[in-house]
Every structure is written in structure tokens, then in C-alpha cells.
Amino acid sequence: MKDIKVPEKAPKFIKDIINKFNQLPLILKILLVVIAGYIAFKLISLIFIISIMSLSLMGVTIAKYPLISIIVILALSESIYLIYNAYKKKVK
């Protein structure tokens, strides 16, 4: 496993963590990467489950209160559009 290179502008605590990680034996590095991957997978699956639950709640709300739901959906789409435009300006 190659050593991780630290950018010069990185904060000191990140440099310390990466330097300590680079000093670990290969077995511990692999074990830490596997554990981090497992935790990341669990977090992503939790976010996915929560998003499905919120979509189902939104479906129930749309059926019960259509006017309020349309306003909320328009506000969400407007905010997504504004975030997208800000991202495009930052990338350029």
C-alpha cells in the first residue's frame, strides 16, 4: 500500500493523522480501510432508507394537501436550481 501524500495547505491535525496512518503496519492499514468502508456503507444505506421514508411521507402529504405540496416542491426545485447555478459559476 502506498503512502498517502499530504497537500501543503492541509491543516496540521490532518497532516498528523495521515503521518500516523502512514507509519502503521500494512495489516492495520488494510483493517482500518475495511472498517472505514463498512461504516461508510452503513451511513449511505441509512441515508438511502431515510430518503425513501421521506419520499413516502411526501407522497402521503401530496395526496392529502395538494396545494401545500406543490408550493413545497416548487421551492425545492428553485433551491436546487440556485445551488446548481452557484456551482456552475464556481466551476468556471
Task: Give an overview of the whole structure.
This protein has 92 residues and is mostly helical. It has one domain (12-91). The chain has helices at 12-23, 26-64, 66-91. Helix 2 (26-64) crosses helix 3. The two termini are 36 Å apart.
List keywords for this structure.
92 residues; mainly alpha; membrane
Secondary structure: elements and pairs:
Elements: H1 12-23, H2 26-64, H3 66-91
Helix pairs in contact: 2-3
Summary?
This protein is an all-alpha fold. The chain is built from 3 helices and no strands.
Content of β-strand: under 5%
3D shape: elongated
Order of helices and strands: HHH
Helix-strand makeup class: mainly alpha
User: Which percent range fits the helix content?
Assistant: over 70%
Tell me how many strands there are.
Answer: 0
Distance between the termini: 36 Å
Q: Which residue ranges are poorly predicted, with pLDDT under 50 across at least 5 consecutive positions? A: none
How would a textbook summarize the main sheet?
Answer: none
How many domains?
A: 1
Compute the average pLDDT.
83
Count helical runs.
Answer: 3
Output the radius of gyration: 22 Å
